[in-house]
Design a protein that fits this description.
Blueprint: E1 15-18, H1 33-56, H2 65-73, E2 77-83, E3 86-96, E4 103-110, H3 119-125, E5 129-130, H4 141-169, H5 204-218, H6 220-226, E6 233-237, H7 244-255, E7 259-263, H8 274-288, E8 292-297, H9 300-303, H10 314-330, E9 338-344, H11 352-355, E10 362-365, H12 371-381, H13 393-398, H14 405-421, H15 429-441, H16 451-470, E11 477-481, E12 491-494, H17 505-515, H18 517-526, H19 534-549, H20 577-604, H21 606-619, E13 621-623, H22 624-631
Parallel strand pairs: 2-5, 6-9, 6-10, 7-8, 8-9
Antiparallel strand pairs: 1-7, 2-3, 3-4, 11-12, 11-13
Helix pairs in contact: 1-4, 5-6, 5-7, 8-10, 12-14, 14-15, 16-17, 16-18, 16-21, 17-19, 17-20, 18-20, 19-20
Amino acid sequence: MANPVPPRDRTDQPWRSEGAPPPPPSKRKMPGGWGGLILTALVVYLLANLVLSFFNRGDEPTISYTEFSKQVTAGNVTKIYSKGDAIQGQLKNKQPVPDGKGDYTKFLTQRPAFADDKLWDELTRQKVTVTAEPVVQERSFLSNLLISLAPMLLLVLLWVFIARRMRSGMGGAGGMLGRRAPPKPVELQAGATRTTFEDVAGIDEVEGELNDVVDFLKNPAAYREMGAKMPRGVLLAGPPGTGKTLLARAVAGEAGVPFFSASASEFIEMIVGVGASRVRELFAEARKVAPAIIFIDEIDTIGRARAGGSGMGGHDEREQTLNQILTEMDGFTGSEGVIVLAATNRADVLDPALTRPGRFDRIVHVNPPDRGGREAILRIHTRDIPLAQDVDLAQVARTTPGMTGAELANLANEAALLAVKRQQKTVTRSDLSDALEKVQLGAERPLVMPDEERRRTAYHESGHALLGMLQPGADPVRKITIVPRGRALGVTLSTPDADKYAYTEEYLRGRIIGALGGMAAEQVVFGVVTTGSESDLEQVTNIARGMAGRWGMSERVGRLTAIPSDAQQAYGLSAAPATLDTVAEEMRRIVDECYESAVRLLGENRDRLDALAAALLANETLEEDAAYRAAGITRLTKDA
């Protein structure tokens, strides 16, 4: 199994890397410098002392010595404490503050040095307690120090937290809010091995094209001596699941060079300029450890053809990111040894500036594997799965035409899950067959149908299957079932014996006749049609539209493409309204002719239709041999 993609080292880093040497340790600098931190600490310290001095001022007022003598003479003083000429005291009864608001019980005063009023005698006569401890308790020096430093420490911690957030979150926006620390490449886990061409199968012709890149990265001197230059960028184009990302990792692993991978959408942010900054940082890191490979997945996210008008918002950010990628690729020299790989399943929408020579000047098409490739892929994905003796991967590969590597990996995994549920030690042929049915037909639904509905479904599926058996050159019928699966009440599975890359008009008409077989059978047997033919009609419409509007199989439309292959493009942009009307008329003519043929064939073979429907009602599911035997038709076996 291929190794998992390494994780990111930072959440704000939009790429992953493997095989790159760790960078030398760098000293982290405080944002704004230590001078700014010290200045801030001093300001905070002064403000804290001012605040604390305000709060440390108690409620005890300072009264005049005359007022104090008056209160002593009146016998209203209960106790005092004296240190030098300073006197603290407490009254028995509250008194209004002289020249102030409110009342007081505790007070502060100062005895003049020239006073000679026999204070001690008066205090003794009034039985005032002279204490050894201060009446007004003050905080210790340590308490005052801790209280003074607490706000400063709190604000310093807040400063550091904000500085780190600025560095990690917003530092990439063109350096607006501070400079980000350089990224640290991610290393592979201990004991893990890198992906190589041994982990890739089914696309040998693509491997041959990418071997040039591997050889260049291994022996750059030989190419320089010959004056040859490798492509600066290689674009991997193909349907989803064909292994484009796996191929890119295998190239880096085979060459033994660092591999930086990122999805194009991860460069785009709301703030304009962030994507371009991240692109610059990624390319700068790759140059540091060159030779290296940069891989950008789903590049059509930012690489679409640019519009003529000025962009706004996210559109402008996407164009800036694309412009930065173009600039970085143009800035490469032969000595840098950095090659850019990119993947897309929409190569037709890419900007011409991206695919011109000097940038992505080599386009490698990654197509679904053929039969031999599928068998090799199945062997790779079943290396860690114990298989029973009856498992024939070559037979599985024959019955899975058109499936991609990702779909085959999912098939092997579904078979293993079924084996675990059935408490088996190995994966059997039945597990693989059931997993294939689940992948191709959908999961079974526990639906109880009325007898009349079940009988109509049996004739519907028998009509599909019988016409597939009678049509010359049609795909063989592999299985018929009236067990509800997915959204369908029944399914007829037909797959070719060999991979097909071009289709004749006769074959396509046969496909339409077979798809209309369910509706035709309902018409022949019951005289009505139901909504069960919805998916069949969608398939018929797509084939007929392609025959009349794209593949030149209509004399009236002519040998031209009136309908674009891109379903997202409006039809009116590609042809005149009169031409589109002609296409619609030809589609209707083709479908009507095929439907008449389907009704006629089923009427001529009504006994076979009844026999096949009866066998379906009795068994619910018929495999290939049983289906042909029930219909009384001999299937000619072809080895592809």
